[in-house]
Amino acid sequence: MKTYDVIVVGAGNGGLVAATSTAKEGFRTLLLEKHNLPGGCATSFVRGRFEFEAALHELCNRATSPKQESIDKIFKRLGVDVPLVYETALFRAIVKGENGYDVVMRPGYDGFLDSIEAAVPGCRDKVKAFIDLIGVLDGAQDYIDEKGINPLALYNQYGDFMRIAAHSTKDVMEAFGIPEKAQSILGTYWGYLGPPIDDLNALHYISLLAAFANTPPAMPYHRSHELSLALVKALQGYGGEIQYNSEVTQFLYDEKGAAIGVIANGDAYYAKKIISNIIPHNVFNRSDEKVIPTAAKKLANARKFGMTFVTLYLGLDCSMEDLGINDYSVFISSDPDSRVQFNQRNNFGMYVVNCLNKALPDSSPEGTCTLFFTIPYMPGDFPENLAPQDYKKFKNEIAEKYIRDYEQTMGVCVMDHIEEIVIATPVTFARYLGTPEGAIYGYASETWDNVVSRSALKDLENKIPNLFFCGGHAARGDGYPSAYITGAMTANDVIKELRRGK
Ligand SMILES: Cc1cc2nc3c(=O)[nH]c(=O)nc-3n(C[C@H](O)[C@H](O)[C@H](O)COP(=O)(O)OP(=O)(O)OC[C@H]3O[C@@H](n4cnc5c(N)ncnc54)[C@H](O)[C@@H]3O)c2cc1C
Fold first, then answer.
1. Strands 2-9 and 267-276: what pairing?
2. What is the widest separation between alpha-carbon atoms in the chain?
3. Distance CA 177, CA 171 (A)
4. CA–CA separation, 166 and 151 (whole Å)
5. Cα separation of 335 and 338, whole Å?
6. In Å, what is the CA distance from 346 to each residue of 2, 83, 341?
7. Contact 355, 371 (CB under 8 A)
8. Cα–Cα distance measured from residue 194 to residue 478, given in angstroms and rounded to the nearest whole number
9. Antiparallel, parallel or unpaired: β 29-32 and 241-243
10. Confidence label for 412 from pLDDT (cuts 50, 70 and 90)
11. pLDDT in tens, 17-28
């Protein structure tokens, strides 16, 4: 019988940090991963002479408050040192049509405000007041982390936090009198989160925007696979084990319903604590139905799956200079209104194209470059009845449509230079990550179910003794920072229980 203190299921960002953290504290830790390599989304793949980044557009590795958890703090604590390169622009946003615009936003507090003022003269002070809300939000978050939720104290000390907690980003921008065009530019990142700004929780969005505005987005030199490998090295350095090609097919419970182990490759592994980096839906489907509390099932079923993507990875036989490309991240939209962009998401509503060579000139062989197209899809967008023999044609058509639109918008020629192309769809993500509907971000962040309510209520969720969750589907929502941070938070909870002998 193989026994451990902690078993972590899934070596995505959350699982890697959780396992490394418990191993570092001396607990016997086993990390089980279904693939033959770590990282989940945080990986890369090679085609011909190109190594493509699979997921990461940009890493937000520092927190806006010194008290808050962040990637740089977690990595430092775990002894993981991966050099990063910081970008010189946040993004270029090109909106087509009558009320369109072409704007470059720069990082850094002043750079950000100067660029929005240059794009929409007269809006600086209003945008500043909006972005400065981060001070109150961070204060309230620090208070909650230290003292828990106390509505009266929060009202008295952090009134704006309570006032905006249940409002959309658009509501709050309107309250600050931010002009429509500036709202549109500030709302550009909705495509990274899912809901358009009239449905996107203001606290969540301000946190993301302020983090990007304050610290330039970063990229590792050797794709996010480098981050994942560095965490594995640290895990092993602390005596932790990682076992690849080990899909967990069953979660095991004792007669009282407490988690006691898992089955992978037909072998049983037992531990005092189980941390799942895989989404609760998949854990419950691999568990005896009788042990899952009704409330946990109801909660999972009440939640919506978050967004997914169609992505195109292109290796081109010419440099970005030859092509006439000069930006790292370009967001291309059909209309300034994010609700319209969202509604037209499968038809040029909004998509992002990244040229990694701008951030990392030698990320592809000399005289070549790569492009990474990201097109938001929501659960249900992908045709359910697509026959297997029609799949290739279907995805090739999407790719061609978007490459042509990009060529036309940017005035560049891409088609003639394609040396390698890979097209991923929600089906690819469903197969690779194992998530329902190919969700890459776990559950959608909605007004009733956002980062704040999830963080506040996390100890009441999924109350199955000895079973814990971390990752993009957990309390902090989606993205690299959230997945790493929930990995650290969950490990902390587990370590506390183990130390108390619970
Ligand atoms: C195309 C794309 C672009 C993105 N861009 C960004 C970005 O620019 N910035 C950003 O912050 N975030 C971005 N994200 C989101 C980010 O990658 C994810 O939110 C984050 O990596 C999720 O981490 P996770 O810990 O939830 O694990 P996941 O990446 O979901 O990994 C889960 C792991 O569990 C394994 N697993 C699943 N089932 C089992 C099982 N039964 N047994 C064993 N192992 C199992 C999987 O193989 C996988 O390794 C992007 C994602 C994608 C796909």
1. parallel
2. 69
3. 10
4. 14
5. 7
6. 48, 36, 9
7. yes
8. 10
9. parallel
10. very high
11. 999 999 999 999
CA of 308 from ligand 1 middle (Å) equals 11
Pairing assessment for the beta strands 267-276 and 467-469 based on DSSP bridges:
parallel
Å from CA of 314 to ligand 1 middle: 21
Of 238, 261, 266, 240, the C-alpha closest to 251 is 261
Please give the structure tokens belonging to residue 109. 């507090």
Atom of ligand 1 nearest to the CA of 264: 42
- Judging by DSSP bridges, how do beta strands 44-47 and 259-264 pair with one another? unpaired
Q: Where does 2-82+221-303+443-499 sit in CATH, by number?
A: 3.50.50.60
DSSP sequence for 49-84: TEEEESS-S-B--S-SSTTS--HHHHHHHHT----E
How far is it, in rounded angstroms, from Cα 198 to Cα 173? 10
211 lines ligand 1 (CB under 6 A): no
pLDDT of residue 452: 74
Q: Which among 440, 473, 476 is the best mutation to test ligand 1's pocket, defined by most ligand atoms within 8 Å of the CB?
A: 440
Residue matched to tokens 């449509």: 401
Q: What is the pLDDT of residue 14?
A: 98
With beta carbons less than 8 A apart as the criterion, state whether 341 and 96 touch.
Answer: no
Closest CA to 180 of 129, 240, 222, 120: 120
For residue 183, give both structure tokens.
């709202």
- Mean pLDDT over 320-336 rounds to 96
CB proximity list for 483: less than 8 A, separation 6 or greater: 12, 13, 14, 17, 470, 471, 472, 474, 476
Output the residue whose Cα is nearest ligand 1's atom 32. 12
Q: How far is the CA of 243 from the centre of ligand 1 (A)?
A: 18
Q: What is the mean pLDDT of residues 104-126?
A: 96
Going by C-alpha positions, the residue among 272, 352, 337 that lies closest to residue 307 is 352
b (16+ CB within 10 A) / e for 286-324: bbeeebbeeebeebbeebbbbbbbbbbbbbbeebbeebe
